[in-house]
Design goal:
Phospholipase A2; 11 helices
Length: 202
């Protein structure tokens, strides 16, 4: 058999079958904890990270995350004591990374929207637990994050971490947020910090 034919045959045989993809989708569904509080997912993640990874790539799960890093956000939050915790979307980003990194690419149409919606709900839950005076700004910031991933995340869904991680320039959010969106986030932080200051001084 010619080398080119052998190479093509190797690629075809290495490609996951529909049955393999279905099994993978069902496995990730089991661990994604859709509809449950993000705290439940994080506890499950800690438990799973304490066990040996599966030797079979088909059942091995990637629990890594690049977080929610956005240029300037940490510095802006640090100016106002209390805001870093109130606007902490690290856990929602961790669950979102898990979904994007573990679902098969073939699930783009069926599962990507669900992963993005869960991300939005997880962030809203964080905001709901924050002080009422800063809550509207938190919700607004969450919507900007959601818009970034839902608008441009398709190319990252189902990709292995070495293709989506910091080697190529940071978190998904850091890559996909437009300058105007970053400015919206920073404006929300500034307004929330000022509102918090007025509440404390009053």
């Amino acid at each position: 058999m010619k080398p080119l034919a052998l190479a093509l045959l190797s690629l075809v045989s290495a490609a996951p079958s529909p049955r393999d993809d279905l099994a993978r989708l069902q496995l990730v569904d089991l661990h994604f904890y859709e509809g449950r509080p993000v705290s439940d997912f994080m506890q499950h993640r800690r438990n799973e990270q304490g066990t040996a990874p599966s030797p079979d790539p088909a059942t091995r799960l990637d629990w890594t995350t690049d977080g929610c890093s956005v240029p300037g956000v940490s510095e802006a939050l640090a100016k106002y004591p209390g805001l870093p915790k109130a606007f902490d979307f690290a856990d929602p980003c961790t669950r979102h990374d898990f979904g994007y990194r573990n679902y098969p690419k073939s699930a783009l149409g069926s599962r990507r929207d669900a992963v993005d919606r869960q991300f939005r709900e997880d962030m809203k839950a964080v905001c709901a637990a924050s002080r009422p005076v800063v809550r509207p700004f938190c919700y607004s910031m969450a919507e900007v994050y959601y818009a970034a991933v839902s608008g441009a995340g398709a190319k990252h869904f189902g990709q292995k971490p070495e293709r989506t991680g910091r080697v190529e320039g940071g978190s998904l959010l850091e890559k996909e947020l437009q300058p105007s969106q970053v400015q919206d986030i920073l404006n929300n932080i500034e307004q929330a910090g000022q509102a918090l200051g007025r509440e404390k001084s009053g």
